[in-house]
Each structure stands twice: as C-alpha cells, then as structure tokens.
Amino acid sequence: MEFDHITRPLTDAEARAEAERIITQSFQPETPVRHFPTSFRDTTPPPAYGTAPPVHQDDKRIVPAWAAGIAVASIGVGAGITGIGCGAWLVLQGLASVTLYGVLMVTLPLAGLAMVATAIGGAVSKARSVSKTVYEGPVTQTTQINNTSTTRGMFSRTRNAVR
After folding, report:
1. The model's pTM
2. Which of 15, 22, 20 is nearest to 1 (CA)?
3. Count of helix runs (H) and strand runs (E) in the chain
4. Model confidence over 17-35: pLDDT tens digits?
5. How far is CA 128 from CA 118, 122, 123, 135, 161, in A?
6. What is the biggest distance separating any 2 CA atoms in the chain, rounded to whole angstroms?
7. Measured on CA atoms in the order 121, 122, 123, 129, is the torsion positive or negative?
8. Which of 112, 116, 94, 93 is nearest to 104 (CA)?
9. What are the CA-CA distances from residue 32 to residues 4, 25, 27, 35, 39 (Å)?
10. Element (H, E) at 145
11. What does the alpha-carbon distance between residue 71 and residue 77 come to, in Å, rounded to a whole number?
12. Would you place residue 5 in the very low, low, confident or very high pLDDT band (cuts 50, 70, 90)?
C-alpha cells in the first residue's frame, strides 16, 4: 500500500468513506458469481379432491415362507419358555418354604419303595446267578519270577518278569 498521497490526517467522514471503499474492494469477487436456486417449495395447498380417479396400488410386500416359519416358531418358543419359566417359578416358590419334616414326609415313601425294589432286584439276581456248570480235573498254577537286574543309582529301573 502506498501512503505517500496522505499528507494530513483524515477527518471522520473521510476515514469512514475510505474504510467503506477498502472493504467493498476487498470483498469484491474477481468474476461475478451467478446464483441458481437449488430447491423449490410450492406453497399452494393441495386440493381436497380432484377430477382424476384413484389409482389402484398393488401390495408388493411378500413375506418368504422361511421368514413366516421363523416368526411362528419364535412365537411358539417364546410361549413355551414362558410356560417353563412359570413352572420353575412355582417349583421354586414351593421349595422356598421347605422344612425338614416336609422333606422327610415326602422322601420316606420313596425311600421305602426304593428299598423294596432293591430287595426284589437282589433276590431275582441271586436266583438267576446259580451256576449249574461243574468243572472237574486237575488244576496247575505256576509262578516264576526272573530278576537278573544289577542296576544301581537314583534313576535306575528294575523290570521284573512275572509268569
């Protein structure tokens, strides 16, 4: 910038005019910019009814068979799990109020049945296991141990052959 032409201070009006000239010159684009509208909004209200007949629009939402099957199965599983959960809740509510005498009264008949079943099973097993086969003849049993090892040391190994 050249300040040679200024020899005296500017008045307030001259300074304001010079500042406006500098600002408009600084922000002036080199080439003029053309502005185009990028959108359009129609503000007229749509008519309540018109002369055109309504157009039939086909429903093209087709659900595949596998998706319908999964949906039905998930509903069934959810209902089943809910039933199982309710049953478990009832059982646990019953178990929450258990006393020793109650456990004994419930398990005593079961223990008696188990004892009777074990006794019957043992008697049947003994009756079936009677052996009718009798072997007659000489029996010979020979045991022979061969130990010929002379190994010594902390990590030595002795192998005995038993026959």
Report:
1. 0.26
2. 22
3. 3, 2
4. 999 988 888 777 676 677 7
5. 15, 10, 9, 19, 40
6. 151
7. positive
8. 112
9. 32, 13, 12, 10, 22
10. strand 145-146
11. 10
12. low
Residue 151 structure tokens:
């190994």
Helix (H) or strand (E) holding 42: none
Total residues found in the chain within this entry: 163
Helix (H) or strand (E) holding 161: strand 161-162
Separation CA 158–CA 152 (nearest Å): 9
Query: How far is residue 150's CA from residue 156's CA, in Å, rounded to a whole number?
Result: 10
Cα dihedral: 81, 83, 87, 92 (round 10): 50
Tokens of 139: 């029996």
Q: What single letter denotes the amino acid at residue 121? A: G
Q: What is the mean pLDDT of residues 27-48?
A: 77
- Which residue intervals of 1-160 are DSSP H helices? 12-26, 65-96, 100-128
Over the stretch 116-140, which tens digit does the pLDDT of each residue have?
A: 999 999 988 888 776 677 778 888 8
Quote the CA–CA distance of 59 and 54 in Å, as a whole number. Answer: 15
Q: 145 with 161: CB under 8 angstroms?
A: yes
